[in-house]
Amino acid sequence: MTNDDSPHGYRIGRADHECRYPVLVDEQQIGRIFRWHGGWLAIPAGTSEPIRRGDGRDGSDAAARYLLEEYRAGRITPQADTRKPDQGTGGRVPLLHPRMRDTDRNQNTARKAVAGLTAYQWEPRGGYPGADNPWAVRCQLCGWEGNRYWSHLRGRNGNPPSPYRHPGCIDADKVRAVIPAYANTSND
Question: Where in this protein does the record put region Disordered (predicted)?
Fold first, then answer.
């Protein structure tokens, strides 16, 4: 994202566990931006409703510029970057992410995705967000936590996903040896 000495007048900070990036002016947060189903959305500081402001590769800058324009127009009061720590779910995870519509199709897709995570020893840390949105997960092989995309974890054409999981995890041969779903495959 943007450097501290950005000529744009803002800095995009480090993402939280849901991949929402704070937009900072003089280290004060003027809002957050995030990507959802291809579009970039902005949430001005002090509000909770996202506003679609960009698409594609340049969408993050478009969303951040929108927040900066609103801030400069006096419609946003900056706040300290009060990132809420991930409180965990206490073992209970909703089936669907709050932004997913509660439809039969989404529920069925979410159940398949959760079953796939279970088969490859991932633990969801939040509800299913859709195949191409970041999903907070925990690696059951080593305890690593971070965001992955279901579209990358599900494999292709009936093949299992790559046994490479994330930096620092056990090597591919060990992954294949400990996860029964990889039996009789050599997928890399």
Answer: 79-100
